[in-house]
Design brief:
mainly alpha, single chain, Hydantoin permease, binds 4-fluoro-L-phenylalanine
Length: 448
């Protein structure tokens, strides 16, 4: 596709909303609260916030620079800069494939809960919420809803970059903020909410700086900011030359942090108010929150509102990794956008079926994997290994292996932007961010 004909996002606000749409998703609303719950609440929040600034922002700027400069899909973008480094693009495509194998399934859970809240069955069932969750997991409905989610994503992607991705983000992101704010205010009036604020806002420093907490926080920062797997490269290929890459990444990171904190401010006070524990794990928002809603007036309505929030947040993220694959198939295999999107959706459905078969311990093509929680393995592998390594090498590549002025030219818009942050980001990219990731990685090898 020639430079002039390639689609591009509208103004500054669109660019921020689209990239924040990718970033803010299950990571902030489902993954962050449950991991923070397991790793000490406030302690985890503190290390997470530091990780976002020390490693997340520089890595995002590096990906933006690669994508906007090349104006190509993840593989094409790295290849255009250096043939030797095109593997980084494949790393991104692999990451997008892996995430497609489980993200739609979890996103689909929100559809089941949304439907059950709307028809009232969630609160009228004789089963406890834990039993309902277990019954749901043991059925084929997660696969059904995952496929519905893939189809919803497909409809947006098939409409194109501007009419699909950009328009959806401009509508869904503000809706998401409003819902989250309403919920945070509502929860503040619950009895004993203060215990939750204490758990989430006053850190235990000893717990905070253990290697395992730091690794989980860095993994969370990458997962949540969508860096390290070609997503921001692909999105930045639709940016305009005048977009400010540094301020965009600060805005995206700031909004992601804000939503994660707001999600914590909704979930922890509610959990403590109901006398429950925040260490429920992956089922936290699906088991604990209904437990809380149940005692509130208009339980079903609050539940519908909350699971709509989860669904919207997930959808603006699924479109982003769908786009990584769609752009890759379209440009590398010369497919029309329509067929590239179809191919991606079919592959995503196949992967979701595979994951479901493995969860069910079904004999798939003679490979029998007993009792393995695939979702957990995929999730930890992408967040704690693939994304940090992808981001680390991207930082090294742009700051050490490209011509010296490449990164400076890109982030200063060829000298049009000035300021100390440019030099700081370049310094971080060269010396701090990759070393920090490497250090944590080595320290944690035994813990992986
Ligand atoms: N950032 C998304 C979330 O927090 O839910 C997940 C994600 C999207 C990761 C896109 C990676 C990606 F390329």
């Amino acid at each position: 596709m020639s430079e002039e004909k390639r689609a591009s996002f509208g103004g500054k606000l669109s660019v921020i909303l689209v990239a924040a749409g990718s970033a803010i998703g299950l990571g902030a609303i489902w993954r962050f609260p449950y991991i923070a719950g397991e790793y000490g609440g406030a302690a985890f929040l503190l290390v997470f916030a530091i990780s976002v600034f020390a490693v997340g922002i520089p890595a995002m700027v590096a990906e933006f620079a690669v994508g906007r400069h090349s104006r190509k899909n993840a593989v094409g973008a790295f290849r255009a800069l250096s043939k030797k480094w095109s593997w980084l693009g494949y790393n991104g495509v692999l990451g997008a494939l892996l995430i497609s194998g489980y993200y739609y399934i979890i996103a689909g859970w929100s559809l089941e809960y949304l439907t059950n809240s709307a028809v009232g069955s969630l609160y009228n069932s004789p089963l406890s919420f834990t039993e309902q969750f277990a019954e749901f997991q043991g059925s084929w409905r997660p696969l059904f809803y995952a496929i519905v989610f893939i189809l919803l994503t497909h409809v947006i992607i098939a409409r194109g970059v501007e009419k699909g991705i950009e328009k959806a983000s401009r509508i869904m992101m503000p809706a998401l903020f409003i819902i989250l704010l309403i919920m945070a205010v509502r929860v503040a009036f619950m009895p004993n909410a203060i215990e939750g604020y204490r758990f989430f806002l006053s850190p235990d420093f000893e717990k905070a700086f253990s290697p395992k907490t730091i690794m989980m926080a860095i993994g969370q920062a990458f997962f949540s900011l969508s860096v390290g797997m070609g997503c921001m490269v692909t999105y930045a290929s639709y940016f305009k030359k005048k977009n400010n890459l540094i301020s965009t990444s600060f805005n995206v990171a700031g909004l992601t942090l804000l939503v994660s904190v707001l999600a914590g401010l909704v979930i922890f006070p509610a959990v403590f108010s109901a006398g429950l524990q925040p260490t429920e794990g992956a089922s936290l928002i699906f088991v604990t929150l209904p437990e809380i809603f149940k005692d509130m007036p208009l339980a079903s309505l609050w539940s519908v509102i909350f699971f709509t929030l989860v669904m919207l947040a997930s959808l603006t993220s699924t479109i982003s990794f769908h786009e990584v694959l769609t752009a890759y198939f379209a440009e590398e295999f010369k497919l029309s956008r329509k067929w590239a999107a179809r191919t991606t959706s079919i592959v995503s459905i196949a992967l979701s079926i595979l994951t479901t078969c493995c969860i069910f311990d079904i004999d798939f093509l003679g490979i029998k994997i007993a009792n393995v929680t695939f979702i957990d393995i995929f999730d930890k592998f992408t967040a704690n290994i693939l994304m940090p390594l992808g981001a680390m090498f991207t930082c090294i590549f742009v700051s050490w292996f490209m011509k010296r002025n490449f990164i400076h030219d890109e982030i200063s818009n060829y000298g049009n932007l000035k300021g100390a942050t440019i030099a700081i980001i370049i310094f971080m990219l060269r010396y701090i961010t990759p070393l920090l990731i490497l250090y944590i990685f080595i320290k944690n090898i035994g813990l992986l």
